[in-house]
## 1
Amino acid sequence: MNCDRDGSRHSSSERIIPLRRSCPWSQGVAVMRDEQFDVPVTIESERIGRLLSVTRTVQAASLLVDKWPDEKRGPKYRAALKAMMDAMEQRRAVGSARRAFTAAAKEAHVFVREGRH
């Protein structure tokens, strides 16, 4: 057997992110998809006055895990993190995950706008 792709199809707007480098038949391997949001979400970054346009699922998940202030990790933050993971594992629509991310940004008072401006 060979550790190449499994032959599944995906659109050009998504990227496949392997969680662990191993053969697909080994135990515990998951493949996540980095998909583009239909509408970007602009948030205020850690540095006051700097804006950040969030456009992809992996970018949003990374922000939630690595950059979200601890004191702003409320119920909507937890829902957004779960929604993003579900979207990357194709168990939830990307638009639904984006809306959960937007709700978390509003709860944390870092939301600026949705869409391109």
Note: Residues 33 and 90 are 7 Å apart (CA to CA).
## 2
Amino acid sequence: MAGRVLAIECSNAIVAIMQVARDAAVVACHFRMLDERLLDRVQPDLVLAPLMSCTFDASDLARRLAQLRFRGALVIAAPHLPRPELVEAELRRLCRGFTMTLMSPARI
């Protein structure tokens, strides 16, 4: 499935895998760069990001995407979590107007 992916502070390996596996156009950026102009330019179908980084966490990202009226899918890559469904439920409450999936080793 081809599409446009906005990868926010993801490793180069993840970006490369997305390009090959999804035959997708992938744009990588830092969280601080995420604004209305970037979303208008990239028009992502999917936003990919880690659960936490040094500069933001998934709840910060979900709030920002809601403010920017993002209308696609958000995929959060998480490490092994003992109760991923609790984290996912908390994040879904912040996702207004878009879908969110939490991917962790326990769920793959």
Note: The chain has four helices and five strands.
## 3
Amino acid sequence: MKEFTIILYAGGNNRLTTDLSLPKSLLPIGNRPLIWYTLQVIQSHSSLASSPLIILTSGQYRQALDDYLSTLNITYEIVIHRQHHDSTSGGEDQQQTSDELGTLDVLRLCYSRIRTESICLLTCDLFGKVNLTPLINMFRVRDASLCMLLLKTTTTSSTTGKDSLVQPGQKAKFTAEPEYYTIDQSSNTITSIRLKADLDEYLPLRQNILAKYPRTLIRTDLVDGHLYLIKKSCLDVANRSTYSSFRKEFLPKMIRQIAIDKPLEDLIFPANNRKPMMRQKTMDLDDHGDLSRILEQYDCDDNQIRGGCYYFIDDTPLFRVKHVLSYLEANRQASSLISSYTNEDITFKDRLEQIQISSDCVIGDGHDIGKKTTIKRTIIGKNCRIEDKCKIINCVLLDNIHVKEGVTLQNSILCSRSTIGSKCEIQNSIVCSNQQVETNKKLNCETVSAISNESTGYMIYDDEQ
């Protein structure tokens, strides 16, 4: 019997380009779509590589996603979901975002397909190489209700060792809302997750939790990696609840209930009308015959309280591709990451006459590059035409782009089927799909799109669970 069922959320809207036929999961990074990197994380651990894989996406992306996944040597099932609830009010002024399906709403659509006692939930935007063995072993050894992956907050300068990069596109005031993680370092227990918006002036700490976990810390330098190992008995409660979002609504309440030793069923049923929650015994450990040795590794013994919520912090350069700057950074790291997974060198090796292309560039098939052109630290997609005397540095060009003579591009993103007129100077900007920039145009920190007020949508796109 399989230990895990993997639920992969791949239905996030693509807000980087205006090509609605391309979901976020298929955004190209290097010469691979974003979902490829998440699939490598799954395939890197034998317990997950052999597990049933259910991919959740919306109907408009089904065909494009299926066309790509069918080229891979994996077994999967795609479950289609709506993007919005059925309208009940019919009011014309109803906000679109107010009736969008949450991640728990989507999960309920495939819940009957889950046949295992443990579930791995994750999104398709995790980029980097992560060793899941400590997380999975902790989940088994502790017989945990939940184990979640936390990442240390990093900037692109700390990831690359270079100066901070300027985020392309129109300037927008956006500050990531800090999260407060209350954790116990001695046992790797997480006892609460709080958003700043949910707090008043102080962060309350319960006395009974401090007594139980005397080495409690509150950390704000962590971010959720959106990778969870969770018992199906816990998701049974979420499935029967009225919550819409797993990450923002159910997860914080679940962690709090378990930390204060209250039944999860209290979230949906009164205490006097509750059915007991059955727990499954832990599965056998991979490559570890001596259970006591593993228990020592996690500073616990066989009599320690089980069924709690635990965290694992990964120290490798791992991040989620959820905004423009992280998308640029992922493209810069793509060649080395692909090489670590496949031993394939995707960097451009051809030598072209009177053309300077640095060794860290990736250039797709069907390219046409003119003479006296310089390209450095840049990713170029398929069927792109770049005319003579162009200078392109720190950029991402998607497929079917035409850059005319004498253009200078720096730290910018050109989306599919865009055209840049001759002698343009573009830096720190985004040109959306199917757009044309006129000759001799100078752009700095701008977004060129079909709708002028659309630009702020490209600054941050996040599908919080």
Note: Residues 4-326 form a domain with the Spore Coat Polysaccharide Biosynthesis Protein SpsA; Chain A fold (CATH 3.90.550.10).
## 4
Amino acid sequence: MPLRTVAKKFGMCTTAFKKLCRRYAIAKWPHRQLRGIDKKIAALKAEMNYSSIDKSSA
């Protein structure tokens, strides 16, 4: 979830939320990194499903 969305849910502005994150040693909000990892996992799962379909039909 993007930082702006999370800050809004907590009823804070993004600047205050960033300061709070830094206080708890979160230097950067990891939204993009996590989204990239999720995409890689989805691609690997799709590849596994595709290869298992090929093996069962052969």
Note: The helical segments are 3-9, 14-23, 31-57.
